[in-house]
Amino acid sequence: MSLLTALTKKVADLTTAYNSLIGKIYKTDAFTHQEDLNASSKIRVFINGISQYVTIEQIVYSSVLSLSNVGVNGIVSGSIEYVEGLNYRTLNLVYRLNNTLYYSNGFDLISNNGGAQPRKDVYYGDSDLDGLLFIKEGDEAVIPSEPILEWGHQLKLTHVDIPAGATAPENVLEITLYDENLQEVGGEWDSYTDTPAEVDLVNEEDFNTGVLSVKFINAGIVGFSLINSVSKNGSNISFIKFRTKLISNIDHILRVSLFSEAGLLVGDVDVKNNTFNFNATLLNEWQTIVIPGTAFRQDGIWGSETYNKVNISNKKSGTTCFIDSAILQTGVNHQSNVFEIPENSIGVRELKPELKATIDLGVSNEVNWMAGVQFKKTLGATTIITHANLVENKTTFLQLTGEQAFSIQHVAEIGGIEDYDGALINVLQMHCTDATPGAEKITANWFNKF
Questions:
Q1: What pLDDT is attached to residue 241?
Q2: N or C: the chain end with fewer CB closer than 10 Å?
Q3: What are the beta bridge partners of residue 259?
Q4: Residue 223 is inside which H or E element, if any?
Q5: How many CA atoms lie within 13 A of 268 on its CB side?
Q6: Which domain holds residue 295?
Q7: For 399, phi and psi rounded to 5 degrees?
Q8: How far is residue 228's CA from residue 233's CA, in Å, rounded to a whole number?
Q9: Neighbour tally for 267: CB within 10 Å
Q10: CATH number, domain at 262?
C-alpha cells in the first residue's frame, strides 16, 4: 500500500469517527409510551457525548441544563453595572453563547437620551463578532417593545427602559449593604451575627475602604446577616458585589443567601473557586466578587417574591478572611441564564401531541407550522419547500432525503456543520424570526444527518 493510499484511508477513518461523535452530540433516545408523556416524563439526551436524563418540563424551561452548567446561553457571572446618566459598564462579565465563554470588564455601553416617547434598548453579545457587546435601540412608542435580535448569533444580556426625554433610567438603585457598619440609620443595612467570637463585624485590622470590615476569625461554618426594614423584590436584583481578602489557604467557599421577612429562603449561591471571579486560593489580596441576580433563583424560579435579609456565610471550617464593601444594585434586569419562554412558544401541553409523530409531507411541499414540530420529505424532483401558519419564535425540524435540488421559502442561506447529502436523511432546523405577512424570515441550519 502506498503512503498516499495509507494516508487517504486514515483520513477516511478519522472522518467516520468524527461523524460518529457529531451524531452522539445531537442524538436523543426514541420516545416510548408516548401516550403517557407528561411534564415529569424523563428523556435521555446526549450532550457533548455525555448521557443525561432530563424531564419534559426541564427541557422546556432549560433549568436543568443551566444548573448543570452544560452550555445554556446566558450570563454565567459578573454583571452589567449602572454607572451614571445612561452609561452602563461591564463588571467582570462572563457570558456563554453557542458553547463559547466571552469575558468583558470595564466596557462602556451608553444609550442615547430619551425621545418624544419611551423605548427599550437591548444590550447584546454577538458570537459572529468575537463576542463583542452592542446596543440595539428600540422603536419609540406609547407602550414600547424590545427590538428583535438576529437569531443564532446574537444574545440579549439585558434591556434598558428609556423613558420619554430621559437622561437617566428610572428605578436603578445602588444600595450599600455594608461598608462602615453604619446600620440602617446610617444608610447601610443592620448587621447581625450569632457567633461574635468567630465573626467580628467591626474589625479594624484590615479593610478595603474606610476603617472597618467583617472578619471571619478561624471560623467554623458560620456567617452574618445584613437586614433592612423594607423588603425588596428578588426579580429586580441586578447584582450583589462585595470584596473579600483570604488569609488562610484551605480552598475557601463562601455562601450568599437571601431570606424573606418570614425567614423563607429566597435563593442562595455558593461562591467557589473560579466562580463569580473568585480565586479560592489567592491569599492576602482583595478580590471583587460579583453575583448576578439571576444566579439566586432556585431551579429557574424565585423561592419567594421578596427578601429583606442578605446572609454571607463561610462553608469551610478554619477559614480566616475579610468581607467589605458589600453593594446591592437593583433595576438593571439581566437576561436569565435559563431560557425565557417567548410568548408564542409551545408549552408542555401543546408539545405532547407534537412529540408523537413526524409528519410526512408526502406529495405536498408545504410545512404547516401549526401542525407539528417534526416533518419529513422525500425529494422526487426539484422542489421549493413552502410554509403555512408561521409562528414567530418557533423552531421546527425537517428531514430531507433524495438526490434532488431544493430551496426553502423565506430562507436566505442554510448554515450548519455539513452540506446536504441526498443519500442520507438530513435534519434541517428552521427557526421563524419574523412571521409578519410580506416580511417573513426563517433562519435554517443543518442539525444532523444519518
A1: 93
A2: N
A3: 265, 309
A4: strand 223-233
A5: 17
A6: 185-236+246-321
A7: -90, 120
A8: 13
A9: 21
A10: 2.60.120
**189 and 289, same domain (yes or no):** yes
Segment 284-299 shows an average pLDDT of: 84
- Tell me if the pTM is above 0.85: no
Which residue, of 45, 67, 89, is where some domain finishes? Answer: 67
Q: In sequence order, what are the residues at sequence separation of 6 or more whose Cβ sits closer than 8 angstroms to the Cβ of residue 18?
A: none
Number of domains comprising the chain: 4
Q: Is residue 330 part of a domain?
A: no
Q: Return the CA Rg of the chain.
A: 26
Distances (CA, A) of 420 to 26, 151, 408, 415: 17, 22, 13, 11
- Say whether both 261 and 295 belong to one domain: yes
Mean pLDDT over residues 299-312, rounded? 79
pLDDT at position 200 is 95
**pLDDT at 298 (0 to 100):** 67
Between the two ends of the chain, the Cα-to-Cα distance in Å is: 31
* Residue 357 identity: A
Which cell goes with 119? Answer: 423605548
d(CA 14, CA 429): 26
298 and 189 in a common domain: yes
Q: For residue 131, which of 112, 155, 159 has the smallest C-alpha distance?
A: 155
- 345 within some domain: no
Res. 48 pLDDT band, cuts 50 70 90: very low
Alpha carbons within 13 angstroms on the beta-carbon side of residue 442 total 26
